[in-house]
Specification:
Blueprint lengths: L11 E8 L10 H16 L8 E3 L9 H7 L5 E3 L7 H15 L4 E8 L1 H6 L25 H16 L3 H15 L13 H5 L3 E3 L2 E2 L9 E9 L11 E10 L15 H12 L8 E4 L4 H10 L8 H4 L18 H4 L7 H13 L17 E8 L4 E9 L1
Parallel strand pairs: 2-3, 2-4, 9-10
Antiparallel strand pairs: 1-7, 1-8, 4-7, 5-6, 8-11, 10-11
Length: 393
């Protein structure tokens, strides 16, 4: 290969993706899930582990990603441990793609794993009610302002300002479950109705239980590599066409508009850099810790105008057979949500573009595979966003 300093920026592809065991995993450690996902992603790529010179990890270990890399037997010369909540992995993928394009790394492995569900069941941890009480958050925590209440307040603002209904929010959960029905790895696959969502126990008004993501175990891995390695990979590449990142706020008092997420910035940047627009996208994988996240992110990415998310999600538009298939694996609302779910969005987008989603495969008219996908992660309570546009060769 020629010297990176004398060549144009290299194209970057996702060449390997994989899930670890997911759902209910009582006997594995988070480290074991990391290793399982990493091995499977390398096997999926067809490349030898010796090509991996970059590594990204967050959420595990005292010195992540050093500790996890050591567990996996890797000695990377490029590392990233960016942690911005659920958007972490789209932001890391953007960093990795930039590093590979510039020649600072050749192949970057991103890995995540968590036993969040098993730990609670075994009494090893409790549910997270807040992100702590230090720094700016100290002014909100004494009032019991939990993470879910922040999302609920934002949803209520959207309902007040634009007339969005709780039934429209419920449609997001119903369609996510319908998509999960075709995914054998999904934790919950039985169909639900709008009435089922509305009649569930109240968690934080207007969110009942089914408006909220599930809690599962699981991990996944994504391997990105320079175009030079693509001829040696086992499968067709999925190219990283463009990415964007953005942060917004920590305290609710600094959030200028509860109805606008940082995806409005990260999405615009990603589409501009990819040279495409929302109308070109065949499917979207969107972080969905709560139903409102899906709705407002669809607006902010430009799939519909601000305030029109409620009507947009009606009439089955988000189904894998719909106008804009969204969260085709069932998302965090039904398939898998072990914590920072953003990496799962990239895995599902790649599988769909490759035509490897089985019964849940999206097809365009004439049975053609989708060509373009967007994965958009959200962190905190709309505090951060990362958006990646992916394209099939």
């Amino acid at each position: 290969m020629s010297s990176p300093s004398t060549r144009r920026p290299r194209k970057v592809a996702v060449v390997g993706v994989a899930l670890s065991d997911t759902g209910r995993v009582d006997e594995a450690t988070p480290y074991a899930l990391h290793a399982q996902a990493a091995r499977r992603a390398l096997a999926d790529s067809g490349l030898d582990r010796s090509v991996v010179d970059g590594f990204g990890s967050a959420g595990l270990g005292t010195l992540a990603p050093v500790e996890v890399a050591e567990y996996l037997g890797l000695r990377p010369t490029w590392v990233d441990s960016t942690t911005v909540g659920g958007a972490t992995w789209e932001v890391m993928a953007a960093h990795a793609a930039d590093a590979i394009a510039a020649g600072h790394a050749n192949a970057v492995l991103l890995v995540y794993g968590s036993t969040a569900r098993a730990d609670i069941k075994a009494g090893r941890r409790t549910s997270n009610l807040s992100f702590g009480a230090r720094g700016p958050l100290q002014f909100e925590v004494p009032y019991g302002h939990t993470l879910i209440s922040k999302y609920a307040m934002a949803a209520r603002r959207h309902m007040h300002q634009y007339g969005t209904t709780v039934e429209q929010l419920a449609e997001v959960a119903v369609q996510a479950r319908a998509n999960a029905a075709a995914n054998s790895d999904a934790m919950f696959r039985d169909p639900i109705t709008v009435d089922d969502v509305l009649s569930g126990p109240m968690i934080a008004d207007p969110f009942t239980k089914l408006h909220c993501c599930i809690r599962s175990d699981g991990g996944c891995a994504v391997l990105l590599a320079a175009e030079d390695y693509v001829p040696d990979t086992a499968k067709s590449p999925v190219w990283v066409l463009g990415s964007g990142t953005a942060v917004s706020h920590t305290t609710m008092s600094e959030w200028e508009d509860f109805t606008v997420s940082p995806a409005a910035v990260s999405g615009r940047l990603a589409f501009e850099r990819a040279g495409v627009g929302p109308a070109d996208i065949d499917l979207a994988e969107i972080y969905d810790a709560f139903t409102y996240m899906t709705l407002v992110t669809l607006e902010d990415l430009g799939f519909c105008a601000k305030g029109e998310g409620g009507p947009f999600v009606e009439k089955g538009r988000l189904l894998r057979t719909g106008e804009l298939p969204v969260n085709t694996d069932g998302g965090g609302l039904s398939a898998c949500h072990p914590g920072m779910r953003g990496l799962f969005l990239l895995v599902e987008a790649v599988r769909q573009l490759r035509g490897e989603a089985g019964a849940g495969q999206v097809r365009k008219p004439g049975g053609r595979l989708p060509s373009l996908a967007v994965a958009s992660g959200t962190g905190g309570w709309f505090c951060s966003s990362g958006t990646v546009v992916l394209g099939r060769a």
